[in-house]
Each structure stands twice: as structure tokens, then as C-alpha cells.
Task: structure prediction
Amino acid sequence: MVSKIRNLHKEHIPIEKRGRPSKVSKKTKVLLARHFLYGKLENLRQGQQLVQLIHGVQVHRETIRNYLNQEGYKVYVKHKKRDLTRDQKLARFNFARDHLNWTIEQWRNVMFSDETLFYRIGSSGRGFYYKRPEDKSIKEHHIKKLNKAATVNLCSGVASPIMA
Result:
């Protein structure tokens, strides 16, 4: 009976909010999202600590993830990248400049190789960051720096067949 009356006058009756009230204010949720966006917070545990500091309540990591989701943020895996030294950057630039006008015949005499990393200590681990899907830019804190000392490179190559 009550549901019939409610359906009859639906537009005039506000929908009641169900469930437990939020432990965290809307302002804190926005602040949390902004801190993740600009790299001030790197993981959900740091988000928990921020909420603990502001409101004095303990929330689960899944709750922090839900808050970010409510603010329109999605999780992405950090890109792995090594830092290039100044000499490596200069060498790459010089190589590109020297080989800019090579012909296809000259490139056929080059062997192309690939590298695979094996981690001796620990693992590569996966890092995550949060951002809105419409934001296509990659920021500094979206990239995971690799530790060179704990890796072994395995190289393989492919050469073009020589035309006789």
C-alpha cells in the first residue's frame, strides 16, 4: 500500500538514503582524491593514515578505494622505467642524428635485439596510481623507477637475412 502511494507521488517524495552514515566528510573525500591525483599519496595505506589524522577514525583500504571511485577516479598500473643518465641520453640523440638518413638497404645489415629482466632480489612489484579516465597525461608519479642493481638482463637478437 505504501509503495503504491510512493510510486503515485514519486517526484515529490525524496529518496531516503540507506545504509550506514559515512565516517568521512565529502570535503575529506575530495581532499583524498586530490592528494592521489597530485602524487602526495602513493597508496591506499597512506590514504587510511590521512583519514585517521583528519577524522580520528580507522577505515579499511577498500573504503578508501570506494571513496576514490565515488570521486570518479580509476586505478592504473604504474609504468616501469629506468632513469637514463646524461651520457645515455646524449648517445641516443647522436645515434638518431647520425642514422636519420639511412636507406632501407643500410638498415637491413643491422641486428635488432630485445632485453628481458630477471629480478634477483625481491620482485618488480606492481605500483598503482589513481586518476580520472578522461585525463590522458602521464605525470612523474605515474612511473615506477626500477632498481638496476637487483636485475639481470637477458638479451636476444634478430638479424635481417642477407640478400645475395
